[in-house]
Amino acid sequence: MLGKQRAFTLGFQHVLAMYAGAVVVPLIVGGALHLTPAQMAYLIAADLFTCGLATILQVLGTKYFGSRLPVILGCTFTAVGPIIAIASASNLATAYGAIILSGLFVVLAAPLYGKLLKFFPVIVTGSVVTIIGLSLIPVAMNNVAGGQGSADFGLPRNLLLALGTLIVILLVNRFAKGFLRSISVLIGLAVGTIAGYAMGIVSFAPVNEASWFNIVQPFYFGTPQFSLTAVFTMIIVNIVSMVESTGVYLAVGRATDQKVEQKQIINGLRSEGAAIMLGGLFNAFPYTAFSQNVGLITLTRVKTRDVIFAAGGIMVVLGLLPKLAAITTVIPNAVLGGAMVVMFGSVAASGISILSEVNLREERNLLIAACSIAVGLGSSAVPQIFDQLPDFAKMLLQNGIVTGSVTAILMNLLLSGKKGSEDA
């Protein structure tokens, strides 16, 4: 058990690691739907509040809910396009009605999905974890350059800030010991932000403009409405998230040196379904296990659930106190990118470590790993190749984790035969 202060500090480090991914979804959705500043502020607050509740439920666990793994839940990027499409065609109330029912689907379907886990032997698990890490690296590099679509994208100062942040993290990991080494990412983010402030690219305007207190309320955007098409669309989104989360659970198990049992994954997915329903209730978003934080666990070597519980509590507080939440937004994208490089690289390295346990001189294993990683990385790197397909197919195939995982599972069935089932 960690001391309360240490758990809080390490939890805050996890919040910073996932914060950009958490707030970018409400910013994109709110911007696309032309929400007012007050509505945008509510959307971000509700998102953080629900992220915190969902994470606490996941970590604590009950008989049927929660994996009891150090997993943070955050809003899934897969849902961004569908939510915008549904709300544009009808209204946000219809989108949230679909989110609530799709969450119920995840809760009910989790045991059935759990029976599919026998198709995840070591060769498949290693390939999936590697794909997760590799597919996140372009996100890191976009942030290194200043953030995709930003006016200062690729400016030398951004690259310098990212490099400086990365060097600080590596130096702390190399020379510090104990607690200081475990908060290397937090130290890197702090030093990078101070350097950014000295360069004149850190603005505290969002902090000044944010309100002190916000109450998250059910059905902020109106009583839920229901459309069969919208519900089916969100169910597809959440099936994608279930596959993605399975890979994250397996990666966390690897990072924490424990075998993840079928029951843990089923309970974890049930918990995600409950979180999705909460997202619909509070007018936030569908939630999934965040792969951003797996690398941080690997890097810091802190594997206790206390830290993630603290992170969940911090997010709940940030959702209620927007001014505090706004402080975390002053970190420059380039600084976040420098930290992401080492964290996401750690996930990919963890996947390669799993694959090292498999005999890759055996042709079938080599083909499964090669094809699944190539398909997964290709789908993430060049998603526009699927632009001419129907929307539901595009939604599935543009997610590299899904295409890579399905490729690995199908090739394992096709090539492994009886040996594959023994490996499983």
UniProtKB/TrEMBL annotation:
Its main location: membrane. It is found in: Cell membrane. This is Xanthine permease. It is a multi-pass membrane protein. Belongs to the nucleobase:cation symporter-2 (NCS2) (TC 2.A.40) family. PANTHER family: PURINE PERMEASE C1399.01C-RELATED, URIC ACID TRANSPORTER UACT. The chain crosses the membrane at residues 12-33, 39-57, 69-87, 93-112, 119-139, 159-176, 183-206, 226-252, 307-328, 334-354, 366-386, 392-415. Signal peptide: none annotated. Keywords: Cell membrane, Membrane, Transmembrane, Transmembrane helix, Transport.
